[in-house]
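Known limitations

Structure tokens in this collection are predictions and should be treated as such. Users comparing against experimental data should check residue numbering before alignment. To illustrate the layout, the record for DUF3786 domain-containing protein is reproduced below. The input appears on top and the generated tokens appear beneath it.
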Amino acid sequence: MISKAPVFEKIYQDYLARVAGLDLTGKQDLLGIEVDGQTINIPFFNTTCSVSPENIVDHRGIRPPHSVCVILCQYLLLSPDRAEDDTHLVTYRDFRDAAPYVQGFDNTAQKPVSKAFSGRIAELEAGCRHLGGTPCDIGISCDLSYMFEALPRVRIYLVFNDADEDFPADCSLLFEKQAARYLDMECLAMIGMVLAQRLAGKDNPDMARLA
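Generated tokens:
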């Protein structure tokens, strides 16, 4: 881990330099962000993170995990020229370029939620609400479904069925098809991982009491 730290720091600094060179004139409404001088404020799940040429910090003034920093920067760097809303729900594997990441998405996002909250649906619902999730009906028979605004134009939907005498607990994470216009497949996979970690109380001390 120590040997990798300089690599992550270099990636982090490279992202800061690339974002600093962006001209986001006219894109604030498109991306749902706020630009204050050289600082860009980006809603992320139920908090706000700030990106500047010097650093990236969350609402506590702390640098987020590396995965979150990458997601935020890529959201800015990959922004389309215009909005083309497509809210049709798809699984992660339905995205055209998702194949190399499908197994990792399942292992770091869907399976951890299934395992952590089997028989604990009340705790899962409390966690979803704590993270700003909104109950939703997406026309699928399930025990629980919530929508999260990971980013202003990237929503993720959690669909959960608890264990019963015939089947183990199962979590499915869905996206709106338009999500692929705002993030690449690696970042969308990391969105799922971040959600799973925060529901489990990792990467979010406020959630530890619920996990």
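For this record: Residues 204-211 have pLDDT under 50 and may be disordered. DSSP finds six helices and nine strands in the chain. Please report discrepancies through the issue tracker.
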